[in-house]
Amino acid sequence: MLWHLIGGVHNDALMLGLMLAGTVIALEALQDTRWWPFTAGVVLIALGAQVKLPALVALAVVGTALARRLGGGLARFTLSGVTMVVVAVLVSVVTSLAGQAGFGWLQALGTPSKVPSWMAPSNWPGFLTGAVFGAESGQAMISAGRVAGLVLVLCGIAVVLTRQLRGGISEVMALGLMMSVIVVLGPVVQPWYLLWAVLPLAAAGVWRTKIAAVVTVFALLVPPLAGDFAGRVAELVVGYGAGLAVVACAFLVLRHVLGRVSVRRRPGGELPAADDVVAGGAGVPGAVARAAGRPAGAARVRVRARVLPCCRR
Length: 313
Fold this sequence. Notes:
Layout: H1 2-6, H2 12-31, H3 35-51, H4 56-69, H5 74-98, H6 124-133, H7 135-165, H8 171-185, H9 194-204, H10 208-221, H11 233-261, E1 263-264, E2 278-279, E3 282-283, H12 286-291, E4 300-301
Antiparallel strand pairs: 1-4, 2-3
Subcellular location: Membrane
InterPro entries: MptA/B-like
Membrane topology: Multi-pass membrane protein
């Protein structure tokens, strides 16, 4: 994130910040049916979509969560979806008029895809066809591949939302999966686009080792500023070193914090008292810990607290 979003000064940082903050606020407010904070969260997501359109999938996640909160069903799902669309349109109109920029930005939505991206899997058949049969055939295949990719993206989003509506996956997991589908099957892929999916998937707590490996490879594949480091190799080396230092410090701090959360058994296998076990700031009764049936030889009792109560199942 520091390497590309901050070092490369990409507006994806604004999109992700607004989208994720709005998602957390909306989902937290939905648990207690607090409509003003919920509305504020939805507006933040819509503002993130003004930076980059993929943030709209967070509105789909929040809308589906709203439908489940109201009792589920296709009718409530449709009503919630229409509500999210109305909010997105209103925010777009207000921001466009307030900024006196008009709606000319609509014509620029397709600009990023004008140059074929070699990282996008949907373009690979076109590149292969162009190498064998010529540029004209290759461009036609690229266009066909993008259409196929768009269809698959829509199908993937529909599947994920269906599973979320039925309670099969959490809201954060749904957001990460839909962002993954958009990145993999979209017409344009840049290394920092992976962060669209990585951040929510990391919050969902899945595939962390694999995600870390993929992010590391793509973070180093293309340096910030499109790799324009001619005559400035020293800056690139310093950047790599600083990034490694930040990751190492974060690892040590997290290990220290998590080590303090872990509660070791006392001599003789006796569990600690209620006041000795703390999770997320709330004491855990000793009777509950004993009822868990921990074996006498267990080395420690680990206490974990989820970040989002709405993700509990």
